[in-house]
Structure formats: C-alpha cells, structure tokens
Amino acid sequence: MVKVKICGLTNLEDAKTAYDCGADFLGFVFIKGTPRTVKDDRFVREAARRMGVGLFKDEIPKKVAETAARCDLSYIQLHGEESPEYCRELGKILVLGTKIMKVFKVGDEIIRIAGKYMPGDYNVDYFVFDTYNPALAGGTGKTFNPKILNEAKKSINKPFFVAGGLTPANVASVVKEVGPYGVDVSSGIERVPGKKDEKLLKEFIYNAKKA
Questions:
Q1: Residue 136 has pLDDT above 70, yes or no
Q2: What is the pLDDT at residue 140?
Q3: Catalytic-role residue among 7, 24, 87, 184
Q4: Is residue 138's pLDDT more than 70?
Q5: Domain ranges (residues) in the chain
Q6: From 24, 71, 87, 130, the catalytic residue
Q7: Does the annotation count 21 as an active-site position?
Q8: What is the model's pLDDT at position 155?
C-alpha cells in the first residue's frame, strides 16, 4: 500500500489530524521565506511522533543535524543543490537511524542537481520527485508528466515519492500509473497556505491508499 506524506504542517492541530487520518509521514518546512515555514518549532517535537520529516535547502549540515535532534525528526528532506558528498557528510552527523530524502525537480525531464548529479549518484534512503518551478522550493500546486518517471525507473535506485500538484481528485491515478513508494501533498489539501482542510486531508489519504 502506498505511503502518504502530509507536508507543510505549521501547527499541532493539523499534525494530529494528519496522524489520526492515517498519514505515514508528517512534513515540517525549515526553509526560510516560504508560506509554510515553521515559525516556532516548539510544537514539532510533540507532533513528529517518529514520523517527522524536516525540509531543508542548502543548509549547513551541522544546523540540519542540530534541528533534527532538537525536534526529534526521523527524516531529512533536502530541496537544494546538495551534492552526494554533502549527503554522505550529513549522514555521519545525524542521530543514528535518521534517514535522508533527496528531492529532484521534474520539468520536461528529471533536472540534474547542480547541473550534473542524477539519482544514481546518491546513496540516500529515498528520492522525492517534485514539479520544477525556479521560484519555489516546493508547494508549487502543479503536476508533471508521470511518464517521465516511468521512463526513468531503471536509474532510480531507491524508493521514491511523487509530489507536485497532487489532490484528492488525481492522486489515485498517479499511484496507479507510476507505482511510487509514497505520495507527498501540501497545497492540494489546504484552505489557505499553511492550514490544512480536514475533509480534503481525509479524502486524499483514503483515495491514495485505496488505489
């Protein structure tokens, strides 16, 4: 059964709702300047429930590790131009057992990190494939052509998530067409940026897992 990650959580109430509705991963944004950035992380440790994913972009590894330990995060999701070497070095200083997810953006094809790195260059635990938008680290609200991932599956050597423009209405078709390990949603289940809609959240998880 496909895993579901509810991302962009900014408050304890939404995190508890996502957990109660059957989410497998809970995402918290630590990237500055986004509408879903965690402004006060004191709630995250209580919310994480060993399912917490912290989102970072080109951050100093030591700061990532310190935040992960302080907030009891079990997963780190990297949205920038982090190299394979960066990921190896980060893995050495994270609390033992903390896993790393590396994000790749998808336009007409999978876009190389820093102009040269592809998924096969990374020894991380998961990949996340999100819609390319040069102005946004995530939460674009736009989908990409899933056939691109089907054509690239041989070079994707780890379990992967699909993100970007997913909603309760389209998530089942994406799961059936791509067969990902997991799906990742943020803006597609919101009333306003940073505030989840409980009805949409429930529908999304149900439709994803039913598929």
A1: no
A2: 59
A3: 7
A4: no
A5: 3-210
A6: 130
A7: no
A8: 83
